[in-house]
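Aim 2 progress update. The chain analyzed this quarter is reproduced below.
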Amino acid sequence: MRRPLSSWGPRLPLVLALIPLFAAPAAAVLVNITVDDQDPSISYTPDGSWTIGQTCPTSQCAAQPDPLQAYGGSWHDTSFIPAAAGAAAPTPQNATFSFTGSAVYVYGILSDSTTGAFGGEDVAFYVDDVAQPDFAFTPSGPENAYTYNRVLFSVAGLDAGRHKLVLQNGRAGGPYSLMLLDYIVYSTDIAAASSSSSSVASSSSTGTTSTSSTSGTSPSTSPSVATAAVQSHGLTGGARAAVIAVAVIAALLMLALIALACTFRRRRQGGVNGTGSAPDLMSERALVVNTAAGDPYITQPFQLTTSPSAIQHPGKAVVSPRPSQPEWVGSPISSGRTLHEEPPMYESEVGSVA
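Predicted structure tokens:
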């Protein structure tokens, strides 16, 4: 039998107040964290194989995009040049990034040039050491034509947790590849985002440092939730303490809710008076207690008495009783009266038969 809400009494507001506390984890909001190419959380190997593009001279870097259109006004530049016949194969250039989340996106700048800064690309991607779809691009446009905010790689639906992304530019026996890495975006829940960053910085469309979270127009394949750029990752001491405190409070609230539910269950199974059986209201003890308490809804039972009456039959000694009309001694509003019942009286005809 389902218990009505009215029977919960003063406990109902407490139960309703606890519900949002346990529903909040299920309503976690995903956000996107944007990591600039110069963020120290991205490691570039081998040493010296990558250069900071916006400060690289033209004598060393043929590609010269517009810094005002790059996220944060910067990018990392590297080129994979196949070995000549008979020479040792060059080592591919890697960019490694670890993150906590369920999706990751890699953005770069494409050089669509068939002369000068030749823009061919041949890039491989790995997530947790598992090969992902490659990105290949063959230029076809004029010289000094660049495409900004281009998604080079994306993967979603990862298990929420720690992951490692590896970008590999070029491969042994592969073609020439120019890589201009601009920024990386990963999706995580808002709690992890707040605890994994210690400072926030982002770039406006002018390329100057500001508190804005926008960095120009993103293509349609970019993430659709809010973005913010971070300078460093990892839980600080204060963040760890906050996480532990929240976990302890949540556990205590869960135990309190379980105890409250068990109490309600025992009361429901116990019956009306909590002992498993209702009192017998028609018993003598119940009547005495309720009458003494002045309960207006408990009344005394009607009391019946009879008066004697005899039927006389001439010439016969047989007498049969006949009850008289009932006489009410007690009434619902006259409690405390006693019942007087006298035995029936008999009369017989005394005489002689002639």
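Residues 237-270 form the longest helix (34 residues). The two ends are 81 Å apart (CA to CA). These observations will guide the mutagenesis experiments scheduled for the next reporting period.
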